[in-house]
Amino acid sequence: MTVFKTFWKVVKKYKGTIILYTVMLIVFGGINMATGDNQIDFVDSKPDVLIVNQDEEKGITENLINYIEDNCNIIDLEQDEEAINDALFYRDVNYVIYIPKGYRKDVLDGKNPELDIKSTGDYQASLAEMMLSRYVETQNVYVKGLENEADIIKAINDNFSKKTSVEMISKLDTGKTGKATLYFNFASYSIMAVVIFIICLVLSSFHEKTVNKRTIISSINYKTHNRLILSASFAYSVIVWALFLIVGMILLGDIMLTTRGLVYMLNSFVFTFCSLTIALFISTLVNDKNAVSGIVNVVALGSAFLCGAFVPAEWLPDTVLKIAHVLPAYWYINSNDLLESIEVIDMTTLKPIFVNMAVIIGFSALFIVVNNIVSRMKQKVG
Asked: For helices 347-381 and 328-341, what crossing angle results, to 10°?
């Protein structure tokens, strides 16, 4: 019990650091969730179109103009080429349609006359071009099959009067799941930093020469001493994990009490355990307290930047993500990203997430094995 109590006395000395990383999680995690709280809704978009009609406005020509007016924002502009070019340059107009003289007669004669256009080349212009192409193709089909102009116009308008109803069948609240993912992704940095930093500092205190000598001459068994330190380290990691879950419940609300929330928690626990094994490994390699801070920055910050804790993984280059595969944080964050979009939670949809957890556990086992090997080698050298 003396070892256990000593461990927590040393931890208490660094409570300011724990509070600092917790505050960072609350502040930056909250900012991330606020900036990410953008619902993407469908908005009907109409491009700005200018029609330069050199034909008589009747029959087929008039119907084309009416179709464009119904589906686009018609811009009233002086029909001067310099003014048109300026309007395109300043994006006052997205698309210009030139209807040539004799267009109506040529269409009815089956000559398929071309419409000259000018475009800004942006997505609005592409939308206008798609609408115009669809109309012209439909018009050409009915011109070949019908002879009367009135019948052609009626057939075209009947074709475009048919509307398709769209029903949203997804009930997933991506706003809440997106917030949870952003929070837990950023938490990977805080968890890794506070677990590695504090455990390495505490264990370096136990590795000091004077403390080592007292341990050797004490009545406590060396294996018992190590087991108590490991137990205390594990207990500390669980407390850190629980603390961040409490913060998550405050920030995220009822989503934490759902099945999805439980998977987020389980995933973060597996990652916390992996962070503990990394901390034990680093503490075996390095006993210098001054070096610990630098190592934490390299490991925790490096993982956060490479794996998508600070910048969403979908925005990172493929090369960076390939490198990130060798880090436990990548698999942890990947699971969070998958959880954000899964609509139905069941064993089938959770399979990739469990695979990611298994990979993280594999990393943990690797660090434990390597740590044991390094410990034995140092004992032999000693």
From this structure: 170
